[in-house]
Amino acid sequence: MKNLFLFMLFSASIFCKAQTISLDELSQCENKPDCPDYIYLTDVNNRLDKFVGIWKGTYTDGRTYEFNFTKKQNDYTFGKYWDLLKGRLLVKNSNNQELVNTLNFSDENVRFSGFIFDKNLKKYQMYYSGNAACNDKGFVYLSFPDSDNVNQMKLVFMQDMDIVSKCPDGYKTVIPDSKEIILTNQ
Predict the structure, then answer these.
(1) Helix (H) or strand (E) holding 101
(2) CB of 50 within 8 A of CB of 144?
(3) For residues 177 and 11, what is the distance between their CA atoms, to the nearest angstrom?
(4) Closest Cα partner for 61 from 91, 101, 31?
(5) Which of 27, 36, 42, 176 is positioned for an S-S bond with 117, CB 3.0–4.6 A?
(6) How far is 14 from 95, CA to CA, in rounded Å?
(7) Which residues is 9 bridged to in the sheet?
(8) Residues forming a β-bridge with 117
(9) Are 35 and 57 within 8 A, CB to CB?
(10) DSSP secondary structure code for residue 177 in this structure
(11) Are 36 and 21 in contact (CB under 8 A)?
(12) How far is the C-alpha of 129 from the C-alpha of 124, rounded, in Å?
């Protein structure tokens, strides 16, 4: 009986050790060997909440953007459970023609999915995958230029550096590479 109790206590301590950590904890230890093992990355401080909603903006070439970010809890990705943002978008050119519309995509089919915050907890990193054949994919960073104004958000897309063999001449990424788009909460 004593051995059974010790085994259960040992098992519980291992299970609890690999349980849950916060987004804040992970942002401070990413890619370090002393990062805690976890199975659930949770948003205990509700840092993702300020990004949730419909955000609109216009780029300098006249393209208009509408992003809809939703918070998903306990989302199973990469062998772990995460609290993260899922994103959908509507992009129109200067003539009001739709270029991309993923507003009705299911969570399983969205092209935007969140990951982590930077060490300062100011920028949230997501991954966008549009037209992969034309390397229209990469990391997206969301932040607030003025921390006192959560109604204006900055979005920056950093395109992956893959080699593309087949893509139409003049192809532009849906989100401009390495350029800011200022978005307003609706």
Answers:
(1) strand 98-101
(2) yes
(3) 48
(4) 91
(5) 27
(6) 59
(7) none
(8) 124
(9) no
(10) B
(11) yes
(12) 17
- CA 108 distance to own-chain centroid: 14
Q: Which stretches within 40-182 are classed as H helix?
A: none
pLDDT per residue as tens digits for the range 11-47? 344 444 568 999 999 898 866 677 888 899 999 999 9
What are residue 91's DSSP bridge partners? Answer: 65, 100
Residue 91: which of 59, 61, 65, 67 has the closest Cα?
65
Q: What angle (nearest 5°) sits at the alpha carbon of residue 27, between those of residues 25 and 32?
A: 90
What is the C-alpha separation between 96 and 64, in angstroms, rounded?
8
3-state secondary structure 13-82: HHHHHCCEEEHHHHHHHCCCCCCCCCCEEECCCCHHHHHCEEEEEECCCCCEEEEEEEEEEEEEECCEEE
Residue 137 burial (CB count, 10 A): 19
* Cα 86 to Cα 48: distance, rounded to the nearest angstrom: 11
Tell me how many degrees the CA angle 167-183-65 measures, rounded to the nearest 5. 40
Residue 55 structure tokens: 């955000």
In percent, the amount of the chain with pLDDT more than 70 equals 88
pLDDT in tens, 94-131: 999 999 999 999 998 998 999 899 999 999 999 999 88
